[in-house]
Amino acid sequence: MNERRTIVDHKDLEVWQLAREFSVKVHHMTLNDIPKFEMYETGSQIRRASKSIRFNIVEGYGRKRYKLEFLKHLQYALGSAKETEDQIDCLFETGSLKSEATKNELIDLTQKLIAFIQGVKKNHRTAE
Fold it and tell me: What does pTM read for this prediction?
């Protein structure tokens, strides 16, 4: 028998799990891998932007009863992902970040977030 597992919480979403892991990695990266002078300005901003990805997925999921609300917050998450990508690029371009490994993880997360948004657009039904 082919059983479909029901998603009952945002923590069941693969895209949220990836966003969570990514935000934790960025948090540690900004405390350990960039110069101290970057930690408080750019480091603080990139930590907030990367955490915003996961937070907006959660907020959207909490409003999933309404398709447009769900999509709005997923788009906010995508915007935060793009902001985080540009901040990583800036740190790398200025020599404050030596490896772009974090960016590769973000690209994967962004692609999965885009696919999730497309799935919600196509399949999600607003609750009555």
Answer: 0.90
CA dihedral sign of residues 120, 15, 51, 110:
negative
- What angle do helix axes 42-62 and 101-123 make, rounded to 10 degrees? 20
- Closest to 7 measured CA to CA, from 110, 23, 17: 17
Domain boundaries, the chain: 12-121
Q: What is the pLDDT of residues 35-83, one digit of tens each?
A: 999 988 999 999 999 999 999 999 999 999 999 999 999 999 999 999 9
* CATH level 2 (architecture), domain 12-121: Up-down Bundle (1.20)
